[in-house]
Amino acid sequence: MADHATTEGPDTAGTSTAAPVKGRLGNCVVCDAGVVAKYKCPGCGIATCSLVCVKKHKQTGDGCSGKRKVGEFKDIREFTDADLVSDYRFLEDALLEKDRAKRWRPTFKVGTETAARADRSPANSKTVDLLTRAASDRGTQLFCMPDGMQRRVANTTFYDRKRNLMQWRVEWLFHNSRGEANETETESDLTSEKDASKKSKQPASAARAEDAKVDETRILETAMRNHLVSGPGNAVRMHELRRLVLIDRETERKKAAGGRDAESEKQSGAEKSIGVFLPAEGHPANDKRYHKLDPSSTLRECLKGKRVLEFPTLHVAVLPDDSEFFPLVEDGEYDEDK
């Protein structure tokens, strides 16, 4: 047995030849030259040996892009470990994109309109349709802007189905009178006569206030007067609106006196009052028109037959001083625009 092992060892070593090692992917399918493949197409699984064959496969292949088909359906009976890994990588890519979008998202100061516009979820079409239908039933044309727009984000108008009640967001712009705005100006401030005429056509600066929700059954004058009443923390606003506050107090005093003072001032032409105006939507920016509202009417009555962009913006001014700043819609003009 020892001799046999001794003689068999050298003979076996001398006569045996090493078998060629084949790659696990087989030979290249594109060049068909018997070259061992090194790459496998993620899209169709074809084996290639070089970059030249990879590019040739994309050009001559049956529409293969070389990318993994993450959404392609595959029967469970044909499902392999490679398909499981492919799905796992797809989920990883989705999480990576989510994390990238979160880190790249710009940060805004908390409480600003920009932050609210970024954090607010888009309103669904049912909500928008409900508001427009409810407004239309009341004779008001409500126009809603696309999601992300400033007025769309700021709009807090709500329709209460149970009470069949519209609660409007109202923006108030309180204008100083022309005379008060120009008290500190002199002729030297105006460089030319052209500038003076141009400046006289510009509306005076305004103080801004907002009501998140105002019932449509509320009297307009009552809602406006809430911003003309002094209270904690609004001393600056009271100073800005001092002329409107004085006129409102004087109006209330005349009503309490039975209207005798008001009749005497009306005859002398010195009566001043507060006017509320609603912009007429649909007019060009260089030819703005306004609706004059009745302060003694409800908000629903004031908006009937009007167009509203998201929510009403009401201009409060002193009459007759600021009448020229708010040209009114002519009779029949707004109906023709409809």
Secondary structure elements and their pairing?
Layout: H1 2-15, E1 39-40, E2 47-48, H2 51-60, H3 81-104, H4 113-119, H5 125-137, E3 141-143, H6 150-154, E4 158-160, E5 165-175, H7 178-181, H8 193-200, E6 206-215, H9 220-225, H10 235-240, H11 242-256, H12 260-268, E7 273-279, E8 290-293, H13 299-303, E9 307-309, E10 313-319, H14 333-337
Parallel strand pairs: 3-9, 5-10
Antiparallel strand pairs: 1-2, 4-5, 5-6, 7-8, 7-10
Please describe what this structure looks like.
- The structure is a single chain.
- By secondary structure, the protein is an alpha+beta fold.
- It is built from 14 helices and ten strands.
- It has helices at residues 2-15, 51-60, 81-104, 113-119, 125-137, 150-154, 178-181, 193-200, 220-225, 235-240, 242-256, 260-268, 299-303, 333-337; strands at 39-40, 47-48, 141-143, 158-160, 165-175, 206-215, 273-279, 290-293, 307-309, 313-319.
- Strands 4, 5, 6, 7, 8 and 10 form a six-stranded mixed sheet that branches.
- The longest helix is centred in the N-terminal third of the chain and has 24 residues, at 81-104.
Short synopsis of the structure:
With 338 residues, the protein is α+β, with helices and mostly antiparallel strands.
Q: Strand share of the residues?
A: 15-25%
Measured as a percent range, the helix fraction is 25-40%
Radius of gyration: 39 Å
Largest sheet: 6 strands, mixed
Number of helix segments?
A: 14
For the secondary structure, the number of strands is 10
Element pattern in H and E: HEEHHHHEHEEHHEHHHHEEHEEH
Low-confidence stretches: 1-20, 179-200
